[in-house]
Amino acid sequence: MPVLIGAIVLAYLLGSLSGSLLIGRARGVDIRGQGSGNAGGTNAFRTQGWRFALGVVMIDVGKGFVATWLGLCVGVVAPPPLDSAYAQAALCGFATVVGHCWPVFFGFRGGKGAATAAGAVIVLAPALILPLLAVWALVLIATGYVGLSTIIAAGAFALLAATISGAFANAAPLTAFAVAIALLIVFTHRSNIVRLARGEEYRFEKALLLHRLLRRN
What we know:
Number of helices: 11
Shape: globular
Strand content: under 5%
Radius of gyration: 18 Å
């Protein structure tokens, strides 16, 4: 058990290495003082451009992947119901997302967790990545709202994880991870939900491909 606790702490610390804040520090900018004030990829793209945002997303996805993979490498070091490398990897993956959202190195002000969660999903359920990206992209194309797309994709992750419960040996820890991530994503996007309700949410107009096609017709 101490080994697992150490792995979870390490995963949290890895999650605390925020991509936007590390790259921003090299550039002499802190995007938490710009745009929406969030330290995630969307605000990075909006305020610093696509190159900056690409670097941010690569770091944030990468740390989710690495921390979850390290959880698998720890082996079985805990009693039931955590007595599987997969369950322990899911815990490490979740800890990394928490670290991204509340990074100890940056005053506990981080991003909203979606990219880091995606990195964990690549390890835990790689077959779900493309369907989830498709859901995210379709909602974005239809609405132009990145936050809404992320929330719906997180909900789809929980639904898909629960749906495959009869055909997947590690269904229980995957479902628990998916539900926990979906709830966390809703919580970190609560300001987006409020702005959506008020009609004040930022809309990525260039993503509204469906709207533009319908208007042409």
